[in-house]
Amino acid sequence: VWAAISGAAMAAGPVMGGWLIELEGWRAVFVINVPVAAIAALLRGTRVRGVRGDRVICPLPHAGLAAALATLTLAITEAGQSDWPLAGVFGLIAVILGYFTAAIDRRSAAPLVPGALRGNVAVWTAFGWGAGVNYALTTVIFAVPVLLRATAIETGATLLPMTVLIAVNPLLTGRIAAAFGPLRPIRMGLAAFPAGLGLTAFALA
Fold this sequence. Notes:
- The protein has 205 residues and is mostly helical.
- It contains nine helices and no strands.
- It has helices at 2-24, 28-31, 33-43, 59-80, 84-106, 115-118, 121-148, 152-180, 183-204.
- α4 (59-80) runs antiparallel to α5.
- The longest helix is centred in the C-terminal third of the chain and has 29 residues, at 152-180.
Protein backbone atom coordinates (compact mmCIF):
# COMPACT_ATOMS: atom_id res chain seq x y z
CA VAL A 1 0.00 0.00 0.00
CA TRP A 2 2.86 2.36 0.87
CA ALA A 3 4.54 1.68 -2.50
CA ALA A 4 1.22 2.07 -4.32
CA ILE A 5 0.66 5.51 -2.74
CA SER A 6 4.17 6.56 -3.83
CA GLY A 7 3.42 5.17 -7.30
CA ALA A 8 0.13 7.07 -7.46
CA ALA A 9 2.05 10.28 -6.79
CA MET A 10 4.41 9.39 -9.63
CA ALA A 11 1.43 8.72 -11.92
CA ALA A 12 -0.13 12.08 -11.07
CA GLY A 13 3.17 13.99 -11.34
CA PRO A 14 3.67 14.14 -15.13
CA VAL A 15 0.00 14.97 -15.75
CA MET A 16 -0.20 17.69 -13.09
CA GLY A 17 3.26 18.93 -14.01
CA GLY A 18 2.31 19.22 -17.67
CA TRP A 19 -0.84 21.13 -16.77
CA LEU A 20 1.07 23.50 -14.46
CA ILE A 21 3.76 24.15 -17.08
CA GLU A 22 1.16 24.96 -19.72
CA LEU A 23 -0.65 27.20 -17.23
CA GLU A 24 2.18 29.11 -15.54
CA GLY A 25 5.50 27.96 -17.01
CA TRP A 26 8.15 25.52 -15.77
CA ARG A 27 8.72 27.37 -12.48
CA ALA A 28 5.24 26.34 -11.33
CA VAL A 29 6.35 22.72 -10.80
CA PHE A 30 8.77 23.94 -8.12
CA VAL A 31 6.27 26.25 -6.44
CA ILE A 32 3.82 23.40 -5.82
CA ASN A 33 6.44 21.62 -3.68
CA VAL A 34 6.36 24.39 -1.08
CA PRO A 35 2.91 23.65 0.44
CA VAL A 36 3.54 19.88 0.20
CA ALA A 37 6.85 20.26 2.05
CA ALA A 38 5.20 22.50 4.66
CA ILE A 39 2.50 19.87 5.33
CA ALA A 40 5.18 17.16 5.58
CA ALA A 41 7.13 19.31 8.06
CA LEU A 42 4.00 19.79 10.20
CA LEU A 43 3.25 16.05 10.14
CA ARG A 44 6.83 15.23 11.17
CA GLY A 45 5.86 15.58 14.82
CA THR A 46 2.95 13.14 14.45
CA ARG A 47 3.60 9.83 16.17
CA VAL A 48 3.25 6.82 13.87
CA ARG A 49 3.41 3.44 15.57
CA GLY A 50 5.41 0.89 13.58
CA VAL A 51 5.60 -2.89 13.93
CA ARG A 52 8.99 -2.49 15.66
CA GLY A 53 7.80 0.17 18.07
CA ASP A 54 8.19 3.93 18.12
CA ARG A 55 11.19 5.52 16.44
CA VAL A 56 12.39 9.08 16.67
CA ILE A 57 13.52 11.14 13.66
CA CYS A 58 16.76 13.10 13.79
CA PRO A 59 16.38 16.13 11.48
CA LEU A 60 20.08 16.96 10.99
CA PRO A 61 21.05 13.97 8.77
CA HIS A 62 17.90 14.51 6.70
CA ALA A 63 18.77 18.19 6.20
CA GLY A 64 22.37 17.30 5.33
CA LEU A 65 21.29 14.70 2.79
CA ALA A 66 18.82 17.13 1.18
CA ALA A 67 21.53 19.80 0.96
CA ALA A 68 24.06 17.35 -0.55
CA LEU A 69 21.60 16.10 -3.17
CA ALA A 70 20.45 19.64 -4.04
CA THR A 71 24.06 20.78 -4.50
CA LEU A 72 24.88 17.69 -6.57
CA THR A 73 21.86 18.41 -8.79
CA LEU A 74 23.10 21.97 -9.22
CA ALA A 75 26.56 20.67 -10.18
CA ILE A 76 25.05 18.35 -12.81
CA THR A 77 22.90 21.20 -14.16
CA GLU A 78 25.93 23.47 -14.52
CA ALA A 79 27.86 20.65 -16.22
CA GLY A 80 24.97 20.28 -18.66
CA GLN A 81 25.45 23.96 -19.55
CA SER A 82 29.24 23.39 -19.95
CA ASP A 83 30.04 25.67 -17.03
CA TRP A 84 32.75 23.30 -15.78
CA PRO A 85 34.40 25.52 -13.13
CA LEU A 86 31.06 26.15 -11.39
CA ALA A 87 30.08 22.50 -11.79
CA GLY A 88 33.38 21.49 -10.16
CA VAL A 89 32.84 23.85 -7.22
CA PHE A 90 29.30 22.64 -6.59
CA GLY A 91 30.40 19.02 -7.03
CA LEU A 92 33.13 19.47 -4.41
CA ILE A 93 30.66 21.10 -2.02
CA ALA A 94 28.24 18.18 -2.57
CA VAL A 95 31.01 15.66 -1.72
CA ILE A 96 31.92 17.60 1.45
CA LEU A 97 28.26 17.82 2.51
CA GLY A 98 27.82 14.09 1.81
CA TYR A 99 30.89 13.22 3.89
CA PHE A 100 29.77 15.27 6.91
CA THR A 101 26.19 13.97 6.57
CA ALA A 102 27.50 10.38 6.70
CA ALA A 103 29.67 11.22 9.73
CA ILE A 104 26.74 12.86 11.56
CA ASP A 105 24.44 9.98 10.62
CA ARG A 106 26.77 7.41 12.19
CA ARG A 107 26.51 9.23 15.53
CA SER A 108 22.78 9.93 15.25
CA ALA A 109 20.24 8.42 17.64
CA ALA A 110 18.04 7.64 14.60
CA PRO A 111 20.43 7.15 11.64
CA LEU A 112 19.21 7.25 8.04
CA VAL A 113 21.09 3.97 7.47
CA PRO A 114 20.72 1.59 10.44
CA GLY A 115 23.97 0.13 11.72
CA ALA A 116 22.94 -3.42 10.77
CA LEU A 117 22.70 -2.42 7.09
CA ARG A 118 25.99 -0.55 6.76
CA GLY A 119 28.13 -3.62 6.19
CA ASN A 120 25.46 -5.78 4.53
CA VAL A 121 26.77 -6.54 1.01
CA ALA A 122 23.48 -8.07 -0.17
CA VAL A 123 21.52 -4.95 0.80
CA TRP A 124 23.97 -2.57 -0.92
CA THR A 125 23.98 -4.79 -4.02
CA ALA A 126 20.19 -4.53 -4.13
CA PHE A 127 20.44 -0.75 -3.64
CA GLY A 128 22.88 -0.62 -6.58
CA TRP A 129 20.47 -2.49 -8.85
CA GLY A 130 17.65 -0.26 -7.67
CA ALA A 131 19.70 2.86 -8.43
CA GLY A 132 20.44 1.58 -11.93
CA VAL A 133 16.77 0.83 -12.58
CA ASN A 134 15.64 4.24 -11.32
CA TYR A 135 18.34 6.03 -13.32
CA ALA A 136 17.19 4.27 -16.50
CA LEU A 137 13.54 5.06 -15.73
CA THR A 138 14.31 8.72 -15.08
CA THR A 139 16.31 8.89 -18.32
CA VAL A 140 13.30 7.57 -20.25
CA ILE A 141 10.98 10.09 -18.57
CA PHE A 142 13.29 12.98 -19.55
CA ALA A 143 14.02 11.61 -23.05
CA VAL A 144 10.38 11.19 -24.11
CA PRO A 145 9.49 14.90 -24.40
CA VAL A 146 12.80 15.68 -26.16
CA LEU A 147 12.38 12.91 -28.74
CA LEU A 148 8.67 13.48 -29.33
CA ARG A 149 8.91 17.29 -29.32
CA ALA A 150 5.58 17.21 -27.50
CA THR A 151 3.93 19.83 -25.32
CA ALA A 152 4.04 19.44 -21.56
CA ILE A 153 0.45 18.18 -21.40
CA GLU A 154 1.05 15.70 -24.26
CA THR A 155 4.17 14.42 -22.52
CA GLY A 156 2.26 13.86 -19.27
CA ALA A 157 -0.41 11.89 -21.14
CA THR A 158 2.27 9.86 -22.98
CA LEU A 159 3.96 8.87 -19.71
CA LEU A 160 0.68 8.06 -17.93
CA PRO A 161 0.44 4.36 -18.98
CA MET A 162 3.93 3.71 -17.59
CA THR A 163 3.44 5.63 -14.35
CA VAL A 164 -0.04 4.14 -13.72
CA LEU A 165 1.54 0.67 -13.84
CA ILE A 166 4.00 1.79 -11.16
CA ALA A 167 1.03 2.71 -8.96
CA VAL A 168 -0.86 -0.57 -9.52
CA ASN A 169 2.10 -2.97 -9.60
CA PRO A 170 2.97 -2.95 -5.84
CA LEU A 171 -0.46 -4.30 -4.94
CA LEU A 172 0.28 -7.36 -7.12
CA THR A 173 3.94 -7.83 -6.20
CA GLY A 174 3.11 -7.54 -2.50
CA ARG A 175 0.83 -10.57 -2.83
CA ILE A 176 3.47 -12.47 -4.84
CA ALA A 177 6.09 -11.71 -2.17
CA ALA A 178 3.70 -12.87 0.56
CA ALA A 179 3.04 -16.14 -1.29
CA PHE A 180 6.48 -16.98 -2.70
CA GLY A 181 8.99 -14.77 -0.87
CA PRO A 182 10.69 -11.56 -2.04
CA LEU A 183 13.22 -13.08 -4.46
CA ARG A 184 10.71 -14.04 -7.16
CA PRO A 185 9.16 -10.58 -7.69
CA ILE A 186 12.66 -9.03 -7.64
CA ARG A 187 13.80 -11.39 -10.40
CA MET A 188 10.57 -10.83 -12.34
CA GLY A 189 11.05 -7.07 -12.08
CA LEU A 190 14.69 -7.17 -13.20
CA ALA A 191 13.66 -9.31 -16.18
CA ALA A 192 10.66 -7.16 -17.08
CA PHE A 193 12.47 -3.84 -16.85
CA PRO A 194 14.91 -4.25 -19.79
CA ALA A 195 12.05 -5.72 -21.84
CA GLY A 196 9.96 -2.64 -21.09
CA LEU A 197 12.86 -0.30 -21.92
CA GLY A 198 13.35 -2.14 -25.20
CA LEU A 199 9.67 -1.77 -26.11
CA THR A 200 9.79 1.93 -25.18
CA ALA A 201 12.86 2.46 -27.38
CA PHE A 202 11.14 0.62 -30.24
CA ALA A 203 7.97 2.72 -29.85
CA LEU A 204 9.96 5.98 -29.80
CA ALA A 205 11.97 4.90 -32.86
